[in-house]
């Protein structure tokens, strides 16, 4: 079963249990991957977080029922997961642009977010530059920060983390420490769900051996086989596009599976294209 088929099973599960309190662990179990990787893959392929997808679908069903029935707004609020009519009305207005009472009078003004269907289409004509490499275990040093991966908080936080690393001079410091095992700066996502539920750790780091410099932390990337992809085109759009290609085209077309250790984004310098390193087995 490839990742696309797994995601379809997870989407079917979400649709069947939209009015229930689903956990991310229950949803990800349908796709047979960790909650961290499920949420990351889902967001990359659909450009929306899992929580936002569920919220949009619930509010779409709520609008349909509001228009087609005379049920009280307070009853609909409770049915679709809101504790109070006020919180329901606020979310409803944010999605549909009008209050529930207005929608009941003017049914043409609501927005419909339909059930998501992920399909494999005929692709692959556009070449993907990559190579397979074997890499022994190596140590990295850098800065790290924990983020919740609920509702896209990690995406916003990571962008700010990079900006802070640039303005503080941390990027330059890490470039100077690099030992050449993998040249440049690394962006590393580490799943922390077993330690802290719904949490990930992000590192801005560089390969390094020796005593850990003051103010930095270290950890070891296990030995692995890697598929290394070059990013072509203007950033950050080209990076996001390549991630989608890897998930939706490369994995279904090749005999490899994800090795289950952190992936790497590699930034070697201003005159070299960034790379994505995917651990494979």
Automatic annotation (TrEMBL):
- Is Zinc set as a keyword in this record? no
Q: Name one Pfam family in it.
A: Cass2
Task: Supply the alphabetized keyword list.
Answer: DNA-binding, Transcription, Transcription regulation
Q: Does the keyword Transcription regulation apply?
A: yes
- The HTH araC/xylS-type domain extends over 8-106
What PROSITE patterns does the entry give?
Answer: HTH_ARAC_FAMILY_1 (PS00041), HTH_ARAC_FAMILY_2 (PS01124)
For this protein, the record's PANTHER family field holds: RIGHT ORIGIN-BINDING PROTEIN
The name this protein goes by in its record: AraC family transcriptional regulator
Species name: Paenibacillus pabuli
């Amino acid at each position: 079963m490839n990742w696309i088929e797994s995601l379809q099973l997870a989407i079917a599960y979400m649709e069947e249990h939209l009015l229930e309190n689903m956990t991310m662990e229950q949803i990800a179990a349908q796709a047979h991957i960790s909650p961290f990787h499920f949420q990351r893959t889902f967001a990359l392929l659909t450009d929306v977080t899992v929580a936002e997808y569920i919220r949009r679908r619930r509010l779409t069903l709520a609008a349909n029922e509001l228009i087609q029935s005379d049920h009280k707004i307070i009853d609909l609020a409770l049915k679709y997961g809101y504790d109070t009519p006020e919180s329901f009305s606020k979310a409803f207005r944010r999605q549909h642009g009008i209050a529930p009472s207005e929608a009941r009078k003017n049914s043409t003004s609501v927005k419909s977010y339909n059930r998501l269907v992920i399909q494999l289409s005929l692709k692959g004509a556009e070449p993907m530059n990559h190579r397979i490499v074997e890499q022994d275990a190596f140590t990295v040093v850098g800065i790290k920060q924990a983020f919740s991966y609920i509702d896209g908080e990690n995406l916003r936080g990571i962008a700010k983390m990079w900006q802070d690393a640039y303005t503080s001079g941390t990027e330059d410091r890490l470039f100077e420490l690099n030992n050449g095992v993998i040249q440049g700066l690394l962006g590393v996502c580490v799943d922390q769900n077993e330690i802290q539920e719904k949490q990930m750790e992000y590192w801005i780091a560089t390969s390094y051996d020796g005593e850990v410099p003051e103010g930095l932390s270290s950890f070891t990337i296990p030995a692995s086989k890697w598929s290394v992809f070059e990013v072509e085109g203007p950033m950050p759009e080209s990076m996001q596009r390549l991630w989608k290609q890897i998930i939706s085209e490369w994995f279904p077309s090749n005999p490899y599976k994800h090795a289950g250790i952190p992936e790497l984004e590699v930034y070697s310098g201003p005159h070299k294209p960034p790379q994505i390193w995917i651990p494979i087995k």
